[in-house]
TrEMBL record:
<comment type="similarity">
    <text>Belongs to the ABC transporter superfamily.</text>
</comment>
<keyword id="KW-0067">ATP-binding</keyword>
<dbReference type="InterPro" id="IPR027417">
    <property type="entry name" value="P-loop_NTPase"/>
</dbReference>
<dbReference type="InterPro" id="IPR017871">
    <property type="entry name" value="ABC_transporter-like_CS"/>
</dbReference>
<dbReference type="GO" id="GO:0016887">
    <property type="term" value="F:ATP hydrolysis activity"/>
</dbReference>
<keyword id="KW-0547">Nucleotide-binding</keyword>
<dbReference type="InterPro" id="IPR003593">
    <property type="entry name" value="AAA+_ATPase"/>
</dbReference>
<keyword id="KW-0813">Transport</keyword>
<feature type="domain" description="ABC transporter">
    <location>
        <begin position="5"/>
        <end position="233"/>
    </location>
</feature>
<dbReference type="GO" id="GO:0005524">
    <property type="term" value="F:ATP binding"/>
</dbReference>
<dbReference type="InterPro" id="IPR003439">
    <property type="entry name" value="ABC_transporter-like_ATP-bd"/>
</dbReference>
<protein>
    <submittedName>
        <fullName>ABC-2 type transport system ATP-binding protein</fullName>
    </submittedName>
</protein>
<dbReference type="Pfam" id="PF00005">
    <property type="entry name" value="ABC_tran"/>
</dbReference>
Length: 302
């Protein structure tokens, strides 16, 4: 796997003594969708600015496509599309005119504007002035600007900010299409886990300028099994509680079910085995996993 974004021990502060970004390291491989999560003020935008060479780190380094980043890395930047916070658009110009400016500056193919408008679903609104656009349409036009030049890497800071649920789904589907059909590597930030969990392959969670979690989406999901509760129903719940109580915390729940604290899939399997070995019939065994949003909140509030 080729590493597209690599940051090593990045630190930065706007004011002396305060590290807004504190020794952050991250690697994003080609074809990944990296969800960069953190509450408001955690340091996501600052990190993104550092990755794009818009701020110079006080310590550490950034490499994109294996090459060190500086403000003069024009060759590198032509391979990247970025949208930081709200898109910068000319309200008095139409969608296509906004795109045309970027296309001409970058000397891109004349067909590029209609191509990116089609990708973001704005073909029918190409000749409408941006001041008449809804927030969702502006966000999609911002994405279209970022897509000019067919970037291999897309860096999007809170691309679903301010969108309604329908707009969020549209952006999510768009990012999935770009990733699957064009192999685009994507870094997207958000402060809401639910907005990235359906699309991200990898997750980094930042709090107060430091990572509190980095790994695959699968690894984050497996945390939801930690300290989960199993609901059990057997042909003899009293006996089941006796069998399990030496190993697990068991509570009588209702007349029909007992609940057992388990902290991993392996423990769930062991509970099942203990019951079967004791000759019990297991009618129902269901894990009530922790909500991912709660896990995220616990991490960032530590
Ligand atoms: N130009 C600046 N000058 C001084 N402080 C700044 C500046 N930009 C950001 N900050 C501060 O740095 C901290 C991190 O801000 P940053 O925008 O990177 O966080 P964020 O995770 O992107 O937050 P949000 O989700 O609210 O955009 C905040 O406390 C913010 O007030």
């Amino acid at each position: 796997m080729n590493t597209v974004v690599s940051a090593t021990s990045l630190s930065f502060g706007y004011v002396p003594q305060v590290k807004t970004v504190n020794s952050i390291s991250l690697d994003i491989g080609s074809g990944q969708i990296y969800g960069f999560l953190g509450p408001n003020g955690a340091g996501k935008t600052t990190t993104i600015r550092l990755l794009l060479g818009l701020l110079s780190p006080h310590a550490g380094s950034v490499a994109l496509f294996g090459q060190p980043v500086s403000r003069k890395s024009w060759q590198l930047f032509s391979r990247i599309g970025a949208m930081i916070e709200t898109p910068s658009l000319y309200e008095h110009l139409t969608a296509v005119e906004n795109l045309e400016i970027g296309r001409r500056i970058r000397k891109l193919d004349p067909g590029m504007c209609s191509h990116v408008l089609e990708i973001v679903g704005l073909t029918a609104s190409a000749r409408i002035k941006v001041r008449e656009f809804s927030l969702g349409m502006k966000q999609r036009l911002g994405l279209a600007v970022a897509l000019l030049g067919k970037p291999e890497l897309l860096i999007l800071d809170e691309p679903t900010n301010g969108l309604d649920p329908h707009g969020i789904i549209q952006v999510r589907e768009l990012l999935q299409t770009l990733n699957q059909d064009y192999g685009t590597t994507i870094l997207m930030s958000s402060h809401i886990l639910a907005e990235v969990e359906k699309v991200a392959t990898h997750i980094g969670i930042i709090s107060k300028g430091q990572f509190v979690f980095q790994g695959t989406m699968q690894a984050l999901q497996s945390l939801s099994f930690q300290d989960s509760t199993l609901l059990l129903q057997t042909n003899d719940n009293g006996k089941a509680a006796l069998v399990l109580k030496d190993h697990y915390q068991v509570e009588a729940n209702t007349a029909q079910t007992i609940s057992v604290k388990a902290s991993s899939k392996a423990q769930t399997a062991q509970i099942c085995r203990l019951l079967c070995d004791a000759g019990l019939d297991v009618y129902h065994l269901a894990a009530t996993a922790n909500d991912l949003e709660n896990i995220f909140l616990k991490m960032v509030n530590r």
